[in-house]
Design brief:
The protein is α+β, with helices and mostly antiparallel strands. The protein has three domains: 4-245, no CATH class; 247-318; 319-375, no CATH class. The chain has helices at 4-16, 42-49, 113-121, 132-146, 158-169, 226-241, 247-318, and strands at 21-22, 56-63, 68-76, 80-81, 89-92, 98-100, 103-109, 150-156, 178-189, 195-206, 213-224, 244-245, 321-325, 331-335, 340-343, 349-352, 371-375. Strands 1, 4, 5, 6, 7, 8, 9, 10 and 11 form a nine-stranded antiparallel β-sheet that branches. Helix 1 (4-16) packs across helix 4 and helix 2 (42-49) packs antiparallel against helix 6. The chain is rod-shaped, with a radius of gyration of 46 Å. Residues 16-53 have low confidence and may be disordered.
């Protein structure tokens, strides 16, 4: 016969895709708190105290990071904390009750494919959101039933959903969020006849300022013989509902993450300033290079123009011609080196060294209007 508790662990491992986290727990000396869990339910406490007339003891949920309890919950004195084991058992009692380590899993999802891809590249999990009931129907039920488990019942646990939401509200947030919580208890019968309970603590955290959301769940599970199941179930539910939060841990946790966020923001601003400064340096260097290239090109053009002008003047010298201009600035190529050159409107010209002769007063040429041309270096 299959050992259903082993398969329970396999189910958790498969469902969580190897990304669950166990809370590190240990029993400490008596620890007093300055505040109470505001969700304290007197009816639940009464129910807790009437479960089998067994004594209670405090169990402290430890935070290894800060070396202090996150909080404390009341458990039966017969529930014994187990060392690390393959079945992931947290508590075990002589009457066959087993409570398993709680496991947390979460996913990110956004309508932006780029943000989803970035999350995957950063090592995060990306998965489209599922409602709590779909999660149970599409993932929890099919797997457990495939291993021989039989679904019996489910019921909501709003007290624990409310506790989760309030607990989360105490914690520092670097990004504003809108959080919804829900909680459902599912009950099962294993192939060995034992009864089991899985509490699914569901949440959605939507980030309205930056877009996207995180969603996920915590699983708390228990297994017991039929004769012990109802008492054990009520005991464990009431222990979770009556968890007392350590205000010193909340303060230490919030100070740490607020400082980390401040340092991260300062580092980000410094990186942005450095990037901007580098960008300005690159732009300035680019402008300097562009100006240098412009200057170089302009110098080349000037030198080239001077070279072209000298070459053109040299060629004109070979052909004994020169540039001359009229009163309007028009430039003409004129053969010869006579001192006086006259041109009519047909671009016909007369060249002479006689400075006293004027074609406008000569009867043989005065049928045209002649302009006197001057030698010029323009045009080269």
């Amino acid at each position: 016969m299959k050992r259903f508790n082993i398969l329970w662990l396999l189910f958790i491992l498969i469902l969580l895709n190897s990304c669950g986290e166990d809370k590190e727990n240990t029993t400490l000396q008596e620890y007093s708190f300055d505040t109470e869990n505001k969700l304290n339910d007197q009816a639940a406490i009464s129910e807790q105290n009437n479960t089998g007339n067994q004594g209670l003891k405090p169990y402290y949920v430890m935070n290894k990071q800060f070396g202090m309890p996150i909080g404390v919950m009341p458990i039966p004195s017969t529930w014994i904390k187990q060392e690390a084991n393959a079945e992931n058992i947290l508590f075990e009692a002589p009457n066959g009750v087993k409570v398993y380590n709680e496991i947390f899993n979460s996913f990110f999802y956004s309508n932006s494919p780029q943000r989803n891809q970035f999350t995957l590249q950063s090592g995060g999990n990306v998965k489209p959101i599922k409602s709590l009931q779909l999660l149970i129907n599409e993932e929890l039920k099919p797997f457990i039933e495939s291993q021989g488990g039989r679904y019996i019942n489910q019921f909501p646990l709003p007290q624990l959903a409310q506790f989760d939401k309030q607990f989360n509200s105490y914690l520092f947030k670097s990004t504003p969020e809108q959080r919804q919580t829900d909680c459902v208890v599912t009950e099962w019968e294993g192939p060995d006849g034992k009864l089991s309970m899985v509490i699914v603590r569901y949440f959605i955290a939507q980030y309205t300022s930056i877009g996207g959301l995180d969603w996920g769940y915590t699983l708390n599970s228990l297994e017991a013989p039929k004769a012990e199941y109802e008492s054990a179930k009520n005991t464990y539910i009431n222990a979770l509902i009556n968890f007392q939060i350590n205000p010193q841990w909340v303060q230490t946790n919030n100070q740490y993450y607020a400082q980390a966020a401040q340092q991260s923001n300062a580092a980000h601003q410094q990186r942005m300033a450095s990037i901007q400064a580098q960008g300005q340096q690159i732009l300035a260097a680019g402008r300097a290079r562009s100006q240098a290239m412009d200057n170089q090109y302009n110098a080349w053009r000037s030198n080239q123009a001077a070279s072209d002008a000298g070459h053109a003047k040299y060629i004109d010298g070979i052909y004994e011609r020169r540039n001359m201009t009229d009163a309007s600035g028009n430039i003409y190529k004129v053969d010869g080196y006579e001192n006086n050159v006259w041109m009519n409107h047909n671009n016909e010209y007369i060249a002479t060294d006689n400075s006293l002769w004027n074609p406008n007063t000569d009867n043989t040429t005065n049928n045209y209007n002649w302009q006197h041309l001057e030698e010029t270096d323009n045009g080269y």
